[in-house]
Amino acid sequence: MGNNNITPNSARILAMAGKGGTGKTTLSALLVRYLVENSLVPVLCVDADANANLNELLGLEVEKTLGEIRDAMKTETPPGMTKNEYMEMQINQAIIETKGFDLLVMGQPEGPGCYCMANSILAQVMEGLAKSYRYMLVDNEAGMEHLSRLNLRDIDTLFVISDPSSRGVLTAARIADLTKALQVSVRQKVLIVNRVPAQIPEALSSQIEEAVAKTDLTFGGYVPASSQLFEYEVQQRPLLDLPASTDAVKAAFEIFSRFIPKED
């Protein structure tokens, strides 16, 4: 997706992380919607969680993943093409283009025998792609190794998603600390507690305060549990079509607006 108004600098990197079941892919879809509705486009979404289904929440069909491209490179390269040229061509074909945003799916993790050349080429191609977008949003698995694999060393905002449990908040704090081990620079780390009940338990509030005090996390806020959002997910309806009046949408947008200004 081209845009003549985009400067030649790389896209700002936004990343989602959290243990399984916290709803980070749901919030990734809502973040895509926020960016598009506020004209913070074009956006490249990278589904880097092997268990995620970001494409379904965005109403898109996936035909090719980066994992499939990497595996194919182990055995095939067309005559007259270098591996770099072949992989770049394949990745461009794998990008799902739509209005305001595009999607690229990492797919299943590597099997036995790391194919380091493919990962190196992937990082180079991603660096080139980033210049064509205003934002790149990466929906990560909890370990966030894909940030290193994609050579994304400078993150603008990392949203760490927790469920309303002490274990979830503790895990979020550990995930935030992982960026140091991965040598990833993050401008701001934002904790979002998702699917909370109408009455916030005092123990949960205390756990959040403790986690924020012990880490470099900033508490972004709560996103309430939503029966309407749940119904959309179960029915595999795109979250882009959720009514703007849905409490979860309003709460998520309010958080995003404080950390990704509309005037960007």
Tell me what you see in this structure.
This protein has a single domain (12-259), classed as Rossmann fold. The chain has 264 residues and is α/β, with parallel strands linked by helices. Helix 3 runs antiparallel to helix 4 (83-94), helix 4 (83-94) packs across helix 5 (116-129) and helix 7 packs parallel to helix 8 (202-214). The chain has helices at 24-37, 54-57, 66-73, 83-94, 116-129, 145-149, 166-181, 202-214, 227-234, 247-259; strands at residues 12-17, 43-48, 96-97, 101-105, 135-140, 154-162, 185-196, 217-224. The chain starts with 11 loop residues before the first strand and ends in a 5-residue tail after the last helix. The longest helix is centred in the middle third of the chain and has 16 residues, at 166-181. The protein is built from ten helices and eight strands. The protein has an eight-stranded mixed β-sheet with strand order 3-4-2-5-1-6-7-8, sandwiched between helices. The model is unreliable at 1-8 (pLDDT under 50). Helix 8 (202-214) links the parallel strand 7 and strand 8 (217-224).
